[in-house]
Design brief:
This protein has a domain at about 35-70. The chain starts with 11 loop residues before the first helix and ends in a 7-residue tail after the last helix. The chain has helices spanning about 10-35, 40-65. It is mainly α and about 70 residues long.
Length: about 70
């Protein structure tokens, strides 16, 4: 099969990387804001919890298209 040179943006690995970057950005923006108003340990734990929730939802629904999220 000949490779046409086009990038498949909807492949599972590309979606995983793209949504991973989005999750990273959201989590770190939240962390930077939280660090302004609360102690470091609380801001870090809260941002990791948000990272977990966002990652679970995004990867489950958008990347792996789990039926439970639809």
């Amino acid at each position: 099969m000949k490779n046409s040179g086009k990038i498949n943006f909807k492949s599972e690995s590309n979606l995983f990387i793209g949504y991973g970057i989005l999750n990273f950005l959201i989590t770190n923006i939240f962390l930077q804001i939280a660090l302004l108003i609360m102690p470091t340990i609380f801001a870090t734990v809260l941002s990791q919890f948000i990272n977990l929730i966002i990652g679970f939802y995004i990867y489950g629904k958008k990347v792996f298209q789990n039926e439970k999220f639809k």
